[in-house]
Amino acid sequence: MPEIPEIETVRVHLEHKVQGQAIEQVIVNREKALNVPVAEFSALTTGRQITTIRRRAKQIIISLGQERSLIVHFMLEGHVRLLYPGEEPAGKPTVMLMLNSGQRLAFFKLNLGYLHLVPTVNLTAMPELAGLGPEPLAADFTLKKFLELLAPRKGMIKPLLLDQAFIAGIGNVYSNEALFCSRIRPERKASHLTAAERQQLYHCIRAILTEAIKFGGVYEEKFASDDNFTGGFEPYLQVAYRTGRPCTVCSHLIETKRVGGRNAFYCPVCQK
């Protein structure tokens, strides 16, 4: 599932490539991905200009003026592809937006994900975004706030980092990387972390997410045929998906175990 760096990478692509364009036609191949009937979705989006592109946690908000917005959640397998004139989609898109430039914005594999049409309001008022925790890269997500959020928690630290109500936008890949960076075992209890470990974890979360955004995350799906940026952070992964390969610090082999129902990648020597 794409996390903050991957979704932020898509947001930037959309901002650079399609912001300012208008939707001329809508093709829907899976109505269940929408929250309104196809006819209503088409009527309320056709002719509308894409004015702003925002991100909240793992979701993208595409505003169509002051009245309505599209909220995209890719979930596990979804992705979006910009098709230039003359290019054909590889497969059947869930939804495709025909733009006035001749380009097409094709959303694929929204089987668990969705493309919802909602009123353009403050992000906190959108039901799709309700219950999300703070953004880990926001200016107001300070060390003090992180420590306050962490203080009452008693469960294992890795599942806690995956809890979107605790902190929004972190998933399996970057929880592994942040825990390795802070030298904390994924099954450690949050209540057992030392003051120094808590501070280090906060700084690692922000540093790794920032660096991953800089290099385009680890998303495999390219945004467009000329996209040479997406996925550039993969060579910098320290533990995620590196089972059986040597640790970049101590050379011990990286191991994997199930923690809270998810695969945790870690170095048994470096992480305590």
From TrEMBL:
<comment type="similarity">
    <text>Belongs to the FPG family.</text>
</comment>
<dbReference type="InterPro" id="IPR035937">
    <property type="entry name" value="FPG_N"/>
</dbReference>
<dbReference type="InterPro" id="IPR015886">
    <property type="entry name" value="H2TH_FPG"/>
</dbReference>
<dbReference type="InterPro" id="IPR015887">
    <property type="entry name" value="DNA_glyclase_Znf_dom_DNA_BS"/>
</dbReference>
<dbReference type="GO" id="GO:0034039">
    <property type="term" value="F:8-oxo-7,8-dihydroguanine DNA N-glycosylase activity"/>
</dbReference>
<dbReference type="InterPro" id="IPR020629">
    <property type="entry name" value="FPG_Glyclase"/>
</dbReference>
<feature type="domain" description="Formamidopyrimidine-DNA glycosylase catalytic">
    <location>
        <begin position="2"/>
        <end position="114"/>
    </location>
</feature>
<comment type="subunit">
    <text>Monomer.</text>
</comment>
<dbReference type="GO" id="GO:0008270">
    <property type="term" value="F:zinc ion binding"/>
</dbReference>
<keyword id="KW-0863">Zinc-finger</keyword>
<dbReference type="GO" id="GO:0140078">
    <property type="term" value="F:class I DNA-(apurinic or apyrimidinic site) endonuclease activity"/>
</dbReference>
<dbReference type="GO" id="GO:0006284">
    <property type="term" value="P:base-excision repair"/>
</dbReference>
<keyword id="KW-0238">DNA-binding</keyword>
<dbReference type="Pfam" id="PF06831">
    <property type="entry name" value="H2TH"/>
</dbReference>
<dbReference type="InterPro" id="IPR012319">
    <property type="entry name" value="FPG_cat"/>
</dbReference>
<dbReference type="InterPro" id="IPR010979">
    <property type="entry name" value="Ribosomal_uS13-like_H2TH"/>
</dbReference>
<dbReference type="GO" id="GO:0003690">
    <property type="term" value="F:double-stranded DNA binding"/>
</dbReference>
<dbReference type="InterPro" id="IPR010663">
    <property type="entry name" value="Znf_FPG/IleRS"/>
</dbReference>
<dbReference type="InterPro" id="IPR000214">
    <property type="entry name" value="Znf_DNA_glyclase/AP_lyase"/>
</dbReference>
<protein>
    <recommendedName>
        <fullName>Formamidopyrimidine-DNA glycosylase</fullName>
        <ecNumber>3.2.2.23</ecNumber>
        <ecNumber>4.2.99.18</ecNumber>
    </recommendedName>
</protein>
<keyword id="KW-0227">DNA damage</keyword>
<dbReference type="GO" id="GO:0003684">
    <property type="term" value="F:damaged DNA binding"/>
</dbReference>
<keyword id="KW-0378">Hydrolase</keyword>
<keyword id="KW-0326">Glycosidase</keyword>
<feature type="domain" description="FPG-type">
    <location>
        <begin position="238"/>
        <end position="272"/>
    </location>
</feature>
<dbReference type="Pfam" id="PF01149">
    <property type="entry name" value="Fapy_DNA_glyco"/>
</dbReference>
<dbReference type="Pfam" id="PF06827">
    <property type="entry name" value="zf-FPG_IleRS"/>
</dbReference>
<keyword id="KW-0862">Zinc</keyword>
<keyword id="KW-0511">Multifunctional enzyme</keyword>
<keyword id="KW-0479">Metal-binding</keyword>
<keyword id="KW-0234">DNA repair</keyword>
<keyword id="KW-0456">Lyase</keyword>
